Prior knowledge:
By secondary structure, the protein is of the alpha/beta class. It has helices spanning 18-27, 39-47, 64-76, 101-126, 150-169, 192-200, 208-221, 232-241, 243-251, 254-261; strands at residues 7-10, 31-36, 54-58, 83-86, 89-90, 132-137, 175-181, 225-227, 270-271.
Amino acid sequence: xxxxxxxxxxxxxxxxxxxxxxxxxxxxxxxxxxxxxxxxxxxxxxxxxxxxxxxxxxxxxxxxxxxxxxxxxxxxxxxxxxxxxxxxxxxxxxxxxxxxxxxxxxxxxxxxxxxxxxxxxxxxxxxxxxxxxxxxxxxxxxxxxxxxxxxxxxxxxxxxxxxxxxxxxxxxxxxxxxxxxxxxxxxxxxxxxxxxxxxxxxxxxxxxxxxxxxxxxxxxxxxxxxxxxxxxxxxxxxxxxxxxxxxxxxxxxxxxxxxxxxxxxxxxxxxxxxxxxxx
Length: 279
């Protein structure tokens, strides 16, 4: 898909890779409707982009009102959007029994329920075009569940299932669905505990700009599935074929996970992407 001249809805535009992803889309010639919860950060993002390349809408996508606000902004733009990039996410690192139930519910609402309802709401606009793409920025944890990230992994497994099911349901239409999974990414979203765990486990991580360029290239190619990083690709595949082997490998990492997961955690923050082990 040639992105030049297309209108792209980008959620999570002010997050960890949000600005690099927005910049990469603009560089490819797209006009971006940038979505986020912080008006000041959205305005600053737009100011750093070429003139008229970015429109902004402030919306909390976990709420009906926020989704309706985005839908109205998409309807009033010209041209109508033909690409939806869902790049928002809420993280949650900690032992399952220590997690706040309301925080876990909010995480699932943000990471899974909101994308499901948003795709459903935007379908009539998207389907007005002869080429359409819905690209969902997932996670390695959508293929490889990791201790300390139970609710997050569950939300990403669900998101991957949603994308795969929709890709098969719309296989005979111009509508493409893509699940694109970064691994650990170096962003300010990381909590100190996650950074410390990554360091102890010697987890490789990528620069946000590099991840953004890889995601945009995958959208242009129409790649249905993408897992960034090695050995993350291997672990994701092994978990699908030989889960017991992965179980034994991760069991050895439990002491480190428990130690860092029990450290004081800041409040959850919504972003596009944040580093986690073997993402």
